[in-house]
Write a structure and sequence with these properties.
With 502 residues, the chain is of the alpha/beta class. The protein has 16 helices and 10 strands. Strand 2, helix 2 and strand 3 form a beta-alpha-beta unit.
Length: 502
């Protein structure tokens, strides 16, 4: 018999809660299906009661949503569901019938993306998992199509047989396009879709929705959409919200209260601080401070949107788990220390903590190329000098961690991150040497910047040597250095123009 879970439905009135969150959840981020296994036990021990399989779980949950789940992935879901049921954790499956047809370029998204990302990035990460198979994205769902809705409903019903208790209908991160035909508004089309999915739910199953405008600023900018969705969604359908911004690092009870007025219900907080897909999976360290303690009384729950690195994801999960269980009594330094010890062990904890602290020096790699153009050599030298102590710490602690860490998957994640930062530091050194030799103080996109790794007879010897290394490196390790090497010393006339325009 299906056991009832402590999962909220509508929370828009009544006595305010004074401690903890009713829904305490985590979702994976670009994890392979098998990487989700084993997490229910970890989450239950850490105080969680909700586990979401991301719509990147497999191509059939997003990229190729029209295709039925394959037997291998269905078997993984069933095993995870059984493990969750044994531990009092509710399993959720996210489905996105629109993302495969997304038309926005990364520069047009609500959150800034790494400059080396492109329109095909969603496909590129799944293709290696399906060698020999052309992963052509399915067309997005056609609003009003009974046949398309049947395909989605069949997947919802199949998920129920596998033990999935909640369906998250994700309508986020897509270009909404023109108002769908046969509907007076985008919200009306989304209500049609949500109603169809809700009708397909089995006994005891629940529906959650991620709106297209899931952050406060976006919801306010598209107030008609938000208001119509709020009026039309049944009271038992929960809505996710990320804060004032897509990546809000200071979510408070007051912000959640305002969001509840917009969405017509107390929202579930979708906490994005650890997610790193927009960074091309750069390590996001150290763990961020959780939201304000007063959030628990104004939120229907909190879902940590995790990081691509599954080993480091446990670090964030332990830290946020401590906050979720007791927001008012939460102590960040104590929670991070406890999480480091639990993850790395007593002996490896000190060098691991030193690495986490040093990692604060890593710049936002999504904006770095733009920031270098804006700040010129002064900014470049500041970033390079900021990385020097990090690299010194790396040289000291990585051999220790190599010897002490028994979790070799975690070690590999850290080593990959270190390689990525070393390549970035080398790229900054190349740019500085080029500025020095040219007598310039400003940077501009190189003439051949359209090519990922521009080569020419005019390039410096340092640039040529680094480009050779980058061509042989893993694409993720190389991407930050590749991005900054699209820059070169600005011609004097361009530098003057920038100065005058400033």
């Amino acid at each position: 018999m299906r056991r009832e879970r402590n999962i909220p439905q509508r929370q828009d009135g009544g006595q305010a809660r004074t401690s903890g969150f009713e829904l305490r959840g985590l979702k994976g981020l670009w994890w392979e299906p098998e990487q989700y296994e084993g997490w229910p036990a970890f989450l239950a021990d850490a105080g969680y009661n909700f586990f979401m399989l991301c719509y990147t779980f497999c191509p059939e949950t997003g990229l190729r949503w029209r295709q039925p789940l394959r037997d291998a992935e269905a078997a993984v879901i069933q095993r995870i569901a059984r493990d969750c049921a044994d531990r009092g954790v509710s399993l959720c499956l996210a489905l996105h019938p629109l993302i495969a047809g997304q038309a926005w370029a990364p520069e047009d998204a609500a959150v800034r993306f790494h400059p080396t990302s492109g329109r095909g990035w969603f496909v590129s990460y799944w293709q290696p998992r399906r060698p020999g198979e052309a992963l052509n994205p399915d067309a997005p769902i056609r609003y009003g199509s009974a046949a398309d809705l049947t395909l989605l409903a069949d997947k919802v019903r199949h998920a129920a047989t596998l033990g999935v208790e909640t369906i998250a209908l994700c309508l986020d991160d897509v270009d909404p396009g023109a108002t769908p035909g046969n509907f007076p508004s985008l919200a009306a089309a989304h209500l049609w879709l949500a109603d169809g999915v809700r009708a397909a739910l089995g006994p005891g199953q629940r529906l959650q929705v991620v709106p297209t405008y899931y952050w406060t600023a976006g919801a306010q900018e598209h107030a008609d959409y938000t208001a119509e969705l709020a009026r039309g969604l049944p009271a038992d359908v929960a809505v996710y919200w990320t804060g004032t911004e897509v990546r809000d690092h200071a979510i408070t009870g007051a912000k959640a209260h305002d969001a509840a007025q917009l969405f017509g219900r107390v929202p579930i907080v979708w906490l994005n601080y650890a997610s790193n897909d927009s960074f091309r999976f750069a390590m996001q360290l150290p763990p961020d401070h959780p939201p304000a303690p007063d959030l628990a009384s104004e939120a229907a729950g909190l879902l940590l949107n995790s990081t691509r690195q599954t080993g480091l994801a446990r670090l964030d999960a332990l830290v946020i788990g401590a906050y979720l269980v007791d927001p008012s009594g939460y102590d960040h330094a104590r929670a991070v220390h406890a999480a480091v010890v639990a993850l790395a062990g007593e002996t490896a904890a000190p060098p691991f903590a030193r690495l986490l602290d040093a990692w604060r020096a890593v710049p936002d790699v999504r904006t770095l190329a733009h920031d270098l153009v804006a700040g010129g050599r002064t900014f470049l030298v500041a970033v390079r000098d900021r990385l020097a102590p990090l690299l010194a710490s790396v040289d000291a602690v990585m051999p220790q961690l190599d010897a002490l860490l028994t979790d070799r998957g975690l070690w590999r994640e850290l080593a990959a991150g270190v390689e990525r930062v070393r390549l970035l530091a080398d790229a900054l050194t190349v740019l500085d040497a080029e500025l020095s030799s040219s007598g310039a103080d400003a940077l501009a996109p190189a003439p051949a910047a359209a090519a990922p790794l521009p080569r020419s007879r005019a390039e410096s010897s340092g640039r040529a040597a680094l480009l050779t290394r980058l061509a042989l490196a893993d694409a993720e390790a190389a991407c930050d250095a590749v991005a900054v090497l699209t820059l070169a010393p600005a011609p004097l006339s361009l530098a003057c123009d920038k100065t005058n325009s400033a």
